[in-house]
Amino acid sequence: MITEDCDRDQLLRKEAIRRGSSGRISQTVTEAILSRNSARVFAKNKTIPHDVLLQMLRLARFAPSGGNLQPWHVHVLTGRKLDSLRHEVYKKTLENPAGEGSEYHIYPPGLTDPYRTRRRKCGKDLYGSLGIGRGDVQKKLQQVRQNFLFYGAPVGLVVTVDKQMNQPQFVDLGLFLGHLCLLGRERGIDSCLQEAWALWPKTIREQLGVPDNHLVFCGVALGYKPRNLPSPQKELNDLATERANLGEFVTFHIDSSTSNGQNNGQRRALAPAGKARL
Ligand SMILES: Cc1cc2nc3c(=O)[nH]c(=O)nc-3n(C[C@H](O)[C@H](O)[C@H](O)COP(=O)(O)O)c2cc1C
Fold this sequence. Notes:
alpha+beta; 4-stranded antiparallel β-sheet
């Protein structure tokens, strides 16, 4: 039963992403979660109004953090400042695709399964959506390089964190970023979180004046998905990556003699009552 529900959620998500791509704004947290995916093509010349951007940042700061440390630091780039960073880094990637070296392990060295397989599948689906085959290294590189143009987004964020922070504070950063992405969906704004930017800490430091005691964690592309995209960009922007079913990551310790036990984690409608239109 749980597997069927998980499969149904995936279908709902696919549909929600498709609607989001055609301009539907998410009105509930559930809708925002379902319609959010990583956008990798953004509408040219459609800027995010400054007050909307400020509002998103103001609201995202209410994300919880351990001890209320609020360890996030965000550099907001638009216009010429954004262009200056993306053009310099993009140019550099033509010479040096590996970058300057990240200040943390983007993935654990020697990543094991099931994570390794999931990572591979993610790449396969992403490049597959563009019709790029396994062996087409040049085309893959070309697509990876789009990261350094912030995928053409009108707003680029660079997120840094004080180097004294540790794993718990990286969780806090994730919560902040999660809030930001969902707040975006409520405003018709899409996003792509980008650890790829962590490969260029030196250039970012120089351009943005990031102090030495801060680590460059990631970039975030923010903007609007273009409507009526042709193939294969449409498939790329509508990509609904898969998720593991609950059975793979939840261990239930449920007292089945209580009614709570019977309901929790078993059959639960995803959409709130009366809000089936996702
Ligand atoms: C912290 C973080 C860093 C990421 N870095 C990149 C990146 O550098 N480039 C990119 O295209 N996508 C990046 N992604 C997007 C993931 O590939 C994506 O979230 C994942 O495949 C699930 O797909 P979805 O976001 O469409 O649901 C990143 C996501 C997260 C959470």
